[in-house]
Write a structure and sequence with these properties.
single chain; two-stranded parallel ribbon; two-stranded antiparallel ribbon; 4 strands
């Protein structure tokens, strides 16, 4: 039987650091992916299953990390490209000069959130207007037609 681990914190930065530490301490090394388009290609990774993460104060959701500093310009740019339903590299490159590294063809960001959320906005807003506390207002970024059957960065 798998041991269950619970990680709880008041703010997201602390939760993030504690989760990384927990994976480092208790994670099991797993085989690296054989897909050369994956960022994990030829890398050893650790995996930890059966973990529950609890953020006690959801409004404290900015990760403050020396190893991965918060980039206000990138986050604003990412937000704008999502609400504009953009998937072109040029839009994101202004905010993140490395954006083209995540594109297969240098033009389109295959995994861009905006187009994947486009058809879900109305339903999400409608559900939350009916019930602001609803746990049924869920959006998904994964699309089997786009993600499962084709290789992409």
């Amino acid at each position: 039987m798998m041991n269950l681990i619970a990680v709880t914190s008041e703010e997201l930065g602390e939760l993030y650091r504690e989760a990384v530490h927990t994976v480092y301490e208790y994670g099991e090394e797993v085989l690296a992916t054989l897909d050369p388009t994956s960022p994990g290609y030829k890398r050893h990774v650790k995996e930890l299953r059966g973990v529950t993460l609890t953020l006690q104060h959801p409004r404290k959701r900015i990760i403050d990390s020396h190893g991965r500093p918060f980039n206000h310009a990138f986050n604003l740019g990412n937000f704008l490209t999502v609400i504009q339903e953009r998937e072109d590299v040029a839009s994101m490159t202004f905010y993140n000069p490395l954006a083209s590294k995540f594109s297969d063809d240098g033009v389109i960001l295959h995994g861009a959130y905006g187009p994947r959320l486009a058809f879900q906005w109305k339903a999400l807003l409608s559900q939350l207007q009916r019930d602001p506390h609803s746990r049924r207002a869920v959006a998904t970024f994964y699309t089997s037609q786009l993600d499962h059957w084709q290789s992409s960065k």
